[in-house]
Amino acid sequence: MAENKEEQEQVNNQQATDTNDDSATNNEQLEGENGDTDAETEIEVDPISALENQLAEAKDKYLRLYADFENFRRRTSKEKIEMIQNASESLIKELIPVIDDFERANKSFETVTEIEPLKEGIALIFSKLQKTLASKGVKAIDSKGQDFDVELHECITQFAAGEDQKGKVIDEVEKGYYLNDKVIRYAKVVVGN
After folding, report:
1. Ordered DSSP codes for 71-101
2. pLDDT per residue over 72-121, tens digit each?
3. pTM, full prediction
4. For the domain 138-193, what is the CATH code?
5. Taking the domains of the chain in order of start, what are their residue ranges?
6. Taking Cα atoms as reference points, which of 143, 149, 146 lies closest to residue 177?
7. Considering Cα of 26, then 29, then 31, then 34, what sign does the dihedral take?
């Protein structure tokens, strides 16, 4: 019986060892599964935090870009206003001597008794003004005797004329002008009918 007892104990110990080995194997499997689950959880957490970081960086970049754009917009609008205000500065600087010449001519009207020198002075001033405007791209539209063109002329009235004058500019009431090949003032004309 003692032998049976010893054998029984050995069998029980063997079963206990086997059970412990199975338990250990099961625990290792569970730990492995739990470890995988923990790794998956960590993998899930990492992409979320990475996406949050990317979102924060994108927001920061957006805010900086928006601020840069607003600064650019303010700066360009300020520059545009200054450019518009000072656009005619060079023309005005060149016209001021012409104004000075007209002032001198007005003073000479008081003392001069002859008309010829006055005519010459006015002709010189007019020539100077035309040269200044021509240097800035202003030129007169030649209308008299030309065919009527609605893109260049403004018809004030029509006048009965012969067949050769029909549809042509008979008289020019007010000159038209180009500025760099763009019409800035239409010529006011009388057209033959």
Report:
1. HHHHHHHHHHHHHHHHTTHHHHHHHHHHHHH
2. 999 999 999 888 877 777 777 888 888 888 888 878 777 777 888 788 88
3. 0.51
4. 2.30.22.10
5. 1-86, 88-136, 138-193
6. 143
7. negative
